[in-house]
Amino acid sequence: MSLLALKNITFAFQDGKNILDGLNLDISCPDRLGIIGSNGSGKTTLLSVIMGLEQAQSGQILFNGEKVDTREDWGGFRKKVGFVFQNSDDQLFMPTVLEDVTFGPLNMGLSADQARQKAIRTLTDLGLHGFEHRITHKLSGGEKRLVALATVLAMDPKIIMLDEPTNDLDPATRLRLIEILHDLPQTLVLVSHDWDFLHNTTNCLYLLEKGTLVPQNSDILHTHVHSHPAGQTEHAHNRNGASLS
Amino acid sequence: MTPPPHTTPSLLDSVDLRARLVGAGALTLAIAATSSLTAALGGCALVVPAALCSGISLRRILSGLKPVGFFLIFLWITLPLTYIGHEIEFLGVSVSMQGFRLALLISLKSCSILILFMTLIGRASFTALAEALRRLGVSPKLCWILLFSYRYLSDIRQEYLRLRRAAMLRGFAPGTTLRTYQVYANMLGMTLVRTWLRAQKINQAMLLRGFHGRLHSLDPTPVFRPGDLMFGSLTIAASIGLTLCT
Hints:
The structure holds two protein chains of two kinds. By secondary structure, chain A is α/β, with parallel strands linked by helices. Helix content of chain A is 31%, strand content 23%.
């Protein structure tokens, strides 16, 4: 049985044009799904519809085979499916890191002590030990991204959706995020323009085009033409473009 | 209530925040309502030693009084010159002793209230404060407004500064012209729009993390102890005493 299924989802904004048009998607555990598409193709809208932030005009969303429809269904769904926003500032709304990371566990019914321990464990797993009393809006961009991930991980979701997670990250933080995502046991759905990032973190890729998801699972041999000083010397590049010689 | 990190806990931190809020409220009302210099001096004599004993340095107290200081200087200049009653000649200018008295009364009252809040409430985190107010029966929505106002005031300011920077980098030079007012009006409007959009996103983020209308606190559920009740009673008694002195 699939973990999350979207059946014939159609969504349009008020201007009338269909952003999602009869979209189907089946996610099983332990899938690591990547979604690519041009700007304005509806990737963020798709995630918003999956999370119930936007209501599809038609179609069904099924979680573990059960329809997600009523307010109670969405409440339970959101405890099992986490969403990391593209802009971390939209995700961090409490004064301190500890308060933000414990927000979700406290809403799930954990006691203050349990929530605190869970938050500290999550922060430590992400290499953020000592961040508990830091002020959220004073963190750097990379720190905010990792803390935003922590706020979702602390709820122990089955699926985590990340919207453009490598935007505005320096190479070191980007690599750190790749390592973290590698080690997560959850099913991942990643929306990104970063081809190398998706190649390193996903096992199947979809292109969002004309309102539907098109599988992109065949490898295509290609070359990239580039130039830089000393190019005539024999050398190779790693995935991040740095020279290995 | 756990005091903020990197601060020395004082005896007052062990008093239930609700008791401190009630005490601060009662004393504030008594000090604000008094028209007696004796009572105002009494209020000052009560709060300043309490502040120093709670670990707040004199320097910190004076620094905290700076915002009201500019306003008080303005009063000290204008009231003696404009108030009517018991005028005397001073350096060739007619000044009113009643005006000086009023300026002194206002200064003592406002400084006392500020120091009182710094002592009793100033060391509490905003989250703990919002939770304590909620437990005292204040509307949860008002408590959220307090908490999120504190959280987002700096963000709103940053949003406005971002727009202003963008304008400056495109050659905008403010002056006393209609164009300047139009540009500032546009920036203010755009700040409000962006704030609104951010608020919608925050609402979504909260819903996605299981928010159902109740903000939970990390601090353990407080129980009133005899010491807290004693503290509350003493502050209320002090308030009544100050009121009777009026």
